[in-house]
Amino acid sequence: MSSSFWRWRNPLSSVSSDVVKPPAATTQRSTAADAVSSLFGDEELSDIRIQGSDGGTVLAVKAILAARSPVFRARFYGPTIDLTSLKGKDVVVFNEFDCRVLHLVVEFCYTDDILIMQIKPSDEIARLMANLKFASKVFKLRGLLDKVNQWSWRQINRFPSLACAMIDEDMKHNDIDEVSIQALQLKSRSALLPDSNAVGAGVLSLTKRGLLFVLRTLEDTTSPLLLFHSIQRWVEFSTEDSVGGTDLAREKSTREAFARKCAMRFIKLSNISPRNLEVVMKDSGLFSDGTTVSTDNMLLDAGLQFSQ
What we know:
The protein is mainly alpha-helical. Helix content is 50%, strand content 6%. It is built from 15 helices and five strands. The chain has a five-stranded mixed β-sheet with strand order 1-3-2-5-4.
């Protein structure tokens, strides 16, 4: 479980247990909604632990979750109930999500709100929102889906460089956010190559699969020079293929091999001016592993034929 996720909830403490324990609620409440919200994280009154794929659990009241979601209702009270017990409470496992996502789902079921949406966004939160969007569909929580979509529209339009992280995470569920795609297409430079002080790492947030998707999406509508620079930045600074920093040269070589294939497939060098192309080829190490290929030949080949 990522400890940084919990830091925003209580900056003065760290989470050492696998059980999420939100701050204790006050005892005096004026409405039924306040009373239900006060039960969030109440260990004494909770009767179930929702366990994620990472082993972390979230305390909850079955009846509250069942009242909010037909999926929870079927899982807790259906004809085929499969429950174990831990510390005197039933345990239900949802391997599709980690504990952080389940925590936010439970929080919404109790409060109709998600406090994490009120803090400054980051790539980590964007990925979390992508998973939360998927969870809202799985648990049939339309209100939660609306909130996530509102967050995506607001934050990605404000910080386009978050789009790459969200797209990369969305791909795991084959459910790409349209807002992210629009930001990528309309604000390509800001989305892919953000400044050092920007919110979001842009192209560096992409895995190999995500990089392929982005290049395929932009190949006909975006400057090939911009795409080439994006690939170069990914090769130089991405942590993809990182195995703990034991062999940085080998890791970079692996990224270069993949990036070379991407450039061959998606970048039309014939659309780059000869002057810029000469600079690109001089500065890039993508096409210099043992074979020299002249700029003139590349232009004659329409920028598609590269020697490996």
